[in-house]
Write a structure and sequence with these properties.
Helices cover about 35% and strands about 30% of the residues. By secondary structure, the chain is α+β, with helices and mostly antiparallel strands.
């Protein structure tokens, strides 16, 4: 007696293409490098754990200064949304987002914050005046 192999997985388990928060963060990190001619670049580092889920940390990096500034993190469980955006410079302000559009809205606010602009301006100014020798 032979038993045939049978695929028990449903055909419809891939319902929609959802862009992970880390993809959005990496895109924004790349835009920052383009805008500043790589004087200040964005860097995304991801950590994961069974209990905590995923944490994507966005740093502002000034290579000429050998300096990395921790700007924000986005955390989520195995499901991509809801996600939590934590803006580090403003005392760890948390904002829960339930979609990619919500994430983009939160990132716009973080990037436009006075503290973010001051830090970027400082990194740009110091990097431009750094001694190349």
């Amino acid at each position: 007696m032979s038993t045939a192999l049978e695929n028990l997985w449903p055909d419809d388990f891939i319902m929609t293409e959802i862009r992970p928060p880390v993809v959005v963060l990496k895109e924004q990190a790349a835009f920052l490098g383009q805008m500043t001619k790589n004087i200040v670049v964005g860097e995304v580092r991801t950590e994961s754990s069974l209990n905590e889920g995923f944490s994507h940390n966005l740093y502002l990096v000034a290579p000429a200064l050998n300096y990395r500034y921790f700007l924000l993190k986005v955390t989520h469980g195995i499901e991509l949304y809801p996600a939590m955006v934590v803006f580090i410079p403003e005392g760890g302000i948390d904002r829960e987002v339930d979609s990619e559009e919500g994430l983009k809205s939160a990132l716009r606010k973080v990037f436009a914050a006075d503290k973010t602009k001051r830090v970027l301006n400082s990194l740009l100014s110091q990097s431009k005046s750094a001694d190349p020798f």
